[in-house]
Amino acid sequence: MTYVFSDVHGDVDSYWKMLKLIRFSKEDRLIVLGDVCDRGNDSAEIYLDLMQRKNAVCIKGNHELMAESVLPYMFSLERKPSRSRYKSAYDNWMENGGDATVLSLYRYSDSARLRILEYIREMPLYLSLTVGEREFLLVHAGIGDYAEGKPMEEYTARELVWSVPDLHTPLWEDKNKYLIVGHTPTMLISRQKPPMIYRAKSRVIDIDCGNAYRSVGGRLGCLRLEDMQEFYV
Ligand SMILES: [Mn+2]
C-alpha cells in the first residue's frame, strides 16, 4: 500500500505513532511531502529513519529549502557568502523553527549530520504516480505560475514549495488526476475539528492537518492512495 503524509515538523512521537497505526511494512511505500524538520524536537531522528528505508521517499518542502541554504555554511562545507546574505538566510530559518533542527542535528555525529544534509539536498521537488485508476501529482505546497503542458521539471523550487493552490479551479481536465499537497494546515481552510484531510473541488487534496500546531488541535494525517482511506494520530 502507498501512504502519504506531510509536515511532521520534527515531531518524532507522531511520526512513530503514525507508522505504527498504518502498520507500515517493507511491502508498503511511504511518501513524505516535505517539512520533516523544524519546530519539533527531533527532526534528525526522522530523517535518519527515512534515509535508511528503501521504500520511503521525501519530497522537498520549504523548511528543507531553508535548511539547505544555511547548513553547508554552518557545517563549514562552504565559505559563507556575504555576511548580510548569510544572516538573512539564517534569521529567516530560525524564525521558522530552524533552531530546534540545529539542536537536533548536533545531538548526532558529524557524519550523520552530513548525510542528512546530503539527503535534504537530493530530495525531489515532485513525484507523479498512478495508483489503480487514479493519477497523482505530489508536491509540498502547490504549483506556482502554473501553465498547462509545462513540464514539471521547469518549475522552480520556490514555485513548488511555497505556492498555495487554488481550491476552486482545477488545474487540469482529467477527472482522475489529483494534486496532493501539504504545507497549508487544513485548519486554515475548514473549521472542521479535529482537522481533517481536505479534498477540494479542484481535485487538490491537502493532507497537512497541522501537526506543527498540536497545541491548538493540529494532528498528523495520512492518506492511503489505493483506497483513499485516511489515518490520524
Ligand atoms: Mn511548508
Q: Can you characterise this structure?
A:
- It is a single chain.
- The protein is α/β, with parallel strands linked by helices.
- It has a single domain, classed as Purple Acid Phosphatase, chain A, domain 2.
- Helices cover 29% and strands 18% of the residues.
- It has eight helices and ten strands.
- The chain has helices at residues 12-21, 43-51, 62-68, 71-74, 83-95, 98-105, 110-121, 157-161, and strands at 2-5, 29-32, 56-58, 126-131, 134-139, 177-181, 198-199, 204-206, 221-224, 229-232.
- The strands form two sheets. A five-stranded mixed sheet has the order 3-2-1-9-10, with no helix packed on it. Strands 4-5-6-8-7 form a five-stranded mixed sheet, with no helix packed on it.
- Strand 5 (134-139), helix 8 and strand 6 form a beta-alpha-beta unit.
- Helix 2 (43-51) crosses helix 7.
- The model has no long low-confidence stretch (mean pLDDT 97).
- The structure holds manganese (II) ion (MN).
- Manganese (II) ion (MN) is lined by residues 35, 61-63, 140-141, 183.
